[in-house]
């Protein structure tokens, strides 16, 4: 698409918000010019990232979940059944009122999330303890009438890529174990995107409407705000009671089931591109890069030998399952570098006459800029090895950056100073009053209690001064 | 899901409508009990068929199309731009009028199809002849407020799986060639589902609203009605003019682009299961079968040797990329046969002590019921060869059945008699008046002019008696 071919300069990544918006357009992830607020268009390049990212989710879930698909439209009476749930969503729901020119008999909600679409069916599907656990997921579009400032991939009115899993278990403990398992799955998912995440249990006032509790994973964005990139909810038997989901236990008794649900969305892609990218554009981990390697023939004059060598390398890499392309366009090399760096291609392979004399190629890493000459004879192994190194080093770099921006704080002043830069780790007595007061005082709320909390120490709540063994994350959030 | 484990009897396939409805439920394709008319739930098993079927579509399109995703919600002003298009859809559009409890400023349509969502963006994306052809597709949910009788997979209010491609070309002829290419792609797609289809050019009164012309592919259902399972539309420069999609040609002139769009939906799965299935349930072509082979250990008493042999075969087949499962449950063999036949598993592999003595296994074909003993040593090749034979013979059988139900007709009486059984192939003068009259007289409409029409003969229009070289398909349709 011609207009993107100009060499637009990105703002520096330090100006994160401008950098992010421009990057989405220039690297062709999302087009923000669609004429409905909060709805955006996936460019084909962006969508190919989505394919790879969601391929990983499917791979992880398919081990013991099954994929399915439920309708978008939820009748008002089903939607209105669970009181807490409604309270959480009623201001955000889009309502379909007309079919053609006729008003509908029953108002239809566009799902903001699918509990109330799925659980009436679970009522029919769950019969016996032998049916449990039931673990299904779907990847669908969901809708929230957001009144806050919308932002592509992050705060949307149409979430195009909501992966939601809904599980049913015999006991409360089984469901709790599944919530832990969900967080383990999400941590693994993000590890494969080279994105380190922090799991924490949300404070009660911030849990999912209708849940017993919520554990979430957050990523730290370059501007020091956290982005919630996955949540897992223990629903207890709350929805089971509302939707009458019972099973016959081993003794022949009818018992309410226990449930969980957990979701990730295209926010995973927002984190992926924000955390790794730089002033030159995207930096893609090899596993999810639409193009993993680009071959650039260095042609002082038209050289058949160079082009033949490039094609030979391309064939070998393709045979090894690597997503590779040759850029043999007439553009000058600098212009080609610009383009493929913007798209985050992990490795650039340059082959010129002087390389050929040495039966070698030049590899340039996108993440570090390092260049290295390698023998053509072993090119496939050289490339595969470097992919592993890049994947590893992106994750290590991101972990270091995250670690350097978690600050141990004891007082509200400490917190105030540090949440501007990242995450404060601070004592909390556990009282909602103190939690909300902290939020008010420092302009940043309690994210949650880290799931790997060591509760053997004794600290003082910076608001009320009471002794506590709990320390929480406090951060500015998206 | 327990309730489906009972051995429900299907009605005979002769009673097609009842058979179809029951099969969807008993074989766990779609659950029809969702509380919104025309919206159905994909069972996980049904969804795994969808995955395989849509995997083929993606494979075919990815050769020279790119996948993308556009928003569901279309603002009223964009939707209302193309006059013919509106006329075709206005009675069928769902309108979102409220966000939360607030009426929206601009009414939002749920896309019935995405021309009016995509083309405002194409206006921005298409700049130069170098951008053309542009070939994008998406797989999304679309909505039609159907007032006719709804039916799972066939006539839906939420089409969950609409694959729509939208292409832009420099000239009318380029777009015409793309329409032909789309029909070629669809024919190939259906060949892989072992479903023979008939391509024909729709009469003018039945073309896509806003198109120059429409070519469709139809499958013949067991009850003799045709099911439109794919359409390709030449849009000329009609939408380009409405949405101002222009490109700069080689001479530097701004010229309107030419466009096509083409779609298939989950009707592909309706055809797949209807055409191949029998009184015992589904018959899946191996390529799209969620389970391609099931191994049944024949155990007179607990035999470690038999189970070991079954596991060994399973491992070998899996290593060859075959989707295989062992049914070593405690159910009696008859009950296992029932279950896997219902699910359409192409090959059943039975291994018992007597087979083991001969170092052999018994293969049973789902499509013909034929059983054959084969050596364990070459089991992988035996299975792969049979898959090819089954795939081929399902297609041949379907072709024969289709061929036997296309009837050469010369008079309206001929047509009337034969459209009860299938498709009439009958002369037509080309006048709309005669076409509609024929419809009225025989209770079946003109499907279209076969694209492989040989126009060298001379026939008489059965309505007006005029000479014509055209023969058309006439059929009862879904």
Automatic annotation (TrEMBL), chains A, B:
Residue ranges constituting the Aminoacyl-transfer RNA synthetases class-II family profile domain according to the UniProt record: 38-285
Gene Ontology, cellular component aspect: aminoacyl-tRNA synthetase multienzyme complex; cytoplasm
Cross-referenced PROSITE patterns: AA_TRNA_LIGASE_II
CDD domains cross-referenced by the UniProt entry: ProRS_anticodon_zinc, ProRS_core_arch_euk
Catalytic reactions of this protein: tRNA(Pro) + L-proline + ATP = L-prolyl-tRNA(Pro) + AMP + diphosphate
Domain of life of the source: Archaea
Single GO molecular function: ATP binding
EC number(s) per entry: 6.1.1.15
InterPro entries cross-referenced by the UniProt entry: aa-tRNA-synt_IIb (IPR002314), aa-tRNA-synth_II (IPR006195), aa-tRNA-synth_II/BPL/LPL (IPR045864), Anticodon-bd (IPR004154), Anticodon-bd_dom_sf (IPR036621), Pro-tRNA-ligase_IIa (IPR002316), Pro-tRNA-ligase_IIa_arc-type (IPR004499), Pro-tRNA_ligase_II_C (IPR016061)
Pfam families in UniProt: HGTP_anticodon, ProRS-C_1, tRNA-synt_2b
Biological process annotations from GO: prolyl-tRNA aminoacylation
Family matches, as SUPFAM superfamilies: C-terminal domain of ProRS (SSF64586), Class II aaRS ABD-related (SSF52954), Class II aaRS and biotin synthetases (SSF55681)
Keyword Thylakoid appears in the UniProt entry: no
Keyword terms of this UniProt record: Aminoacyl-tRNA synthetase, ATP-binding, Cytoplasm, Ligase, Nucleotide-binding, Protein biosynthesis
Key word Cell inner membrane present: no
Cellular location(s): Cytoplasm
Domains: entry comment: Consists of three domains: the N-terminal catalytic domain, the anticodon-binding domain and the C-terminal extension.
Family stated for the protein in its record: Belongs to the class-II aminoacyl-tRNA synthetase family. ProS type 3 subfamily.
Biological role stated in the UniProt entry: Catalyzes the attachment of proline to tRNA(Pro) in a two-step reaction: proline is first activated by ATP to form Pro-AMP and then transferred to the acceptor end of tRNA(Pro).
Subunit structure: Homodimer.
Name assigned to this protein: Proline--tRNA ligase
Species the sequence originates in: Methanococcoides methylutens MM1
Gene: proS
């Amino acid at each position: 698409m011609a207009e993107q071919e100009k060499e637009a300069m990105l703002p520096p990544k330090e100006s994160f918000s401008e950098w992010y918006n421009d990057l989405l357009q220039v690297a062709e992830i999302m087009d923000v010019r669609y004429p409905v607020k909060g709805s955006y268009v996936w460019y084909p390049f962006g969508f190919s990232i989505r394919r790879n990212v969601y391929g990983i989710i499917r791979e992880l879930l398919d081990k013991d979940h099954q994929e399915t698909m439920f309708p978008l439209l939820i009748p008002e009476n089903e939607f209105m059944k669970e009181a807490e749930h409604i309270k959480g969503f009623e201001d955000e729901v889009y309502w379909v009122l007309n079919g053609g020119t006729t008003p509908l008999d029953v108002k239809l909600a566009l799902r903001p999330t699918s509990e109330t679409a799925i659980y009436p069916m679970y009522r029919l599907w769950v019969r016996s303890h032998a049916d449990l656990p039931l673990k299904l997921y779907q990847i669908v579009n969901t809708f929230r009438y957001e009144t806050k400032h919308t932002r592509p991939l992050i705060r949307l009115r149409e979430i195009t890529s909501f992966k939601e899993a809904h599980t049913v278990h015999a006991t409360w403990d089984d469901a709790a174990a599944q919530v832990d398992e969900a967080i383990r799955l999400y941590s693994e998912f993000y590890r494969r995107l080279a994105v380190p995440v922090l799991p924490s249990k949300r404070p009660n006032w911030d849990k999912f409407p209708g849940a017993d509790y919520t554990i979430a994973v957050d990523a730290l964005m370059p501007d020091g705000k956290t982005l919630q990139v996955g949540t897992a909810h223990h629903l207890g038997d709350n929805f089971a009671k509302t939707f009458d989901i019972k099973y016959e236990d081993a003794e022949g008794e009818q018992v309410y089931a226990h449930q969980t649900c957990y979701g990730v969305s295209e926010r995973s892609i927002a984190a992926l591109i924000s955390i790794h990218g730089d002033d030159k554009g995207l930096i893609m981990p090899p596993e999810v890069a639409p193009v993993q390697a680009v071959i650039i023939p260095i042609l002082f004059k038209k050289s058949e030998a160079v082009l033949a060598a490039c094609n030979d390398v391309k064939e070998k890499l393709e045979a090894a399952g690597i997503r590779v392309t040759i850029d043999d366009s007439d553009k000058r090399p600098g212009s080609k570098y610009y383009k493929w760096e913007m798209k985050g291609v992990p490795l650039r392979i340059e082959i010129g006459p002087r390389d050929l004399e040495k039966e070698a190629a030049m590899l340039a890493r996108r993440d570090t800029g390092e260049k290295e000459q390698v023998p053509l004879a072993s090119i496939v192994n050289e490339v595969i090895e470097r992919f592993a190194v890049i994947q590893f080093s992106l994750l290590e770099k991101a972990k270091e950056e995250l670690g350097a921006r978690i600050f141990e704080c004891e007082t509200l002043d400490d917190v105030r100073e540090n949440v501007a830069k990242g995450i404060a780790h601070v004592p909390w007595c556990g009282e909602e009053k103190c939690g909300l007061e902290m939020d008010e005082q420092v302009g940043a709320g309690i994210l949650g209690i880290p799931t790997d909390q060591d509760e053997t120490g004794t600290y003082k709540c910076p608001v009320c001064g009471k002794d506590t063994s709990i320390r929480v994350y406090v951060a500015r959030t998206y």
